[in-house]
């Protein structure tokens, strides 16, 4: 569990991973050394696993996004998993229960590029693709309570 200070720190970092230690200390109402120690403990406990940057794929030319459900053919699970991991356009993927084994998010520049990506999987898996029209909820933290 997180106390009130840890919650402030985590929320501030989620909003801006580049925030300075001094600013973070001001937001939490603590000294910089106290915040540094708390950060160290949050990392040791694996509450914080990375400090990262959020990119806008459209600024990089990836104007299209899709959600792809992938169902490997019999005996192809590990091969399909490796193919997914080796496909850089697939920016997120979860292994799930249910009819499909994987649900991935991919960014691409054209429908031809989407076809090319899906063709790599076609011999080893069935796919079902939905084009993303808009994002209702951006990636966010779960409740910290």
Key features of this structure:
5 helices; alpha+beta; 4-stranded antiparallel beta sheet
What name does the CATH topology of the largest domain carry?
A: Alpha-Beta Plaits
Strand order of the largest sheet: 2-3-1-4
Largest sheet: 4 strands, antiparallel
Give the terminus-to-terminus CA distance: 8 Å
Rg of Cα set:
20 Å
Count the helices. How many?
5
CATH uppermost class of the largest domain: Alpha Beta
How many domain regions? 2
CATH architecture of the largest domain: 2-Layer Sandwich
Low-confidence stretches: none
Mean pLDDT: 96
Description:
By secondary structure, the chain is an alpha+beta fold. It folds into 2 domains: 4-44, Winged helix-like DNA-binding domain superfamily/Winged helix DNA-binding domain (Arc Repressor Mutant, subunit A, Orthogonal Bundle); 57-131, Lrp/AsnC effector binding domain/regulation of amino acid metabolism (RAM) domain (Alpha-Beta Plaits, 2-Layer Sandwich). The protein has helices spanning 4-15, 21-28, 32-44, 77-85, 111-122; strands spanning 64-72, 90-95, 102-108, 125-131. A 4-stranded antiparallel beta sheet has the order 2-3-1-4, covered by helices on one side. A hairpin with a 6-residue loop joins strand 2 and strand 3 (102-108). Helix 1 packs across helix 2. The longest helix is centred in the first third of the chain and has 13 residues, at 32-44. The relative contact order is 0.15.
């Amino acid at each position: 569990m997180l106390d009130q200070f840890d919650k402030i720190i985590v929320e501030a970092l989620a909003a801006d991973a580049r925030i300075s230690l001094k600013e973070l200390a001001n937001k939490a109402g603590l000294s910089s050394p106290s915040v540094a120690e708390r950060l160290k403990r949050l990392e040791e406990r694996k509450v914080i696993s990375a400090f990262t940057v959020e990119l806008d794929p459209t600024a990089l030319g990836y104007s299209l996004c899709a959600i792809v459900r992938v169902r490997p053919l019999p005996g192809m699970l590990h091969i399909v998993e490796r193919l997914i991991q080796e496909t850089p356009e697939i920016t997120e993927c979860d292994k799930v229960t249910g009819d499909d084994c994987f649900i991935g998010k991919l960014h691409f520049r054209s429908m031809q590029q989407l076809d090319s990506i899906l063709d790599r999987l076609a011999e080893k898996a069935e796919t079902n693709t939905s084009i993303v029209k808009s994002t209702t909820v951006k990636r966010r933290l779960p409740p910290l309570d």
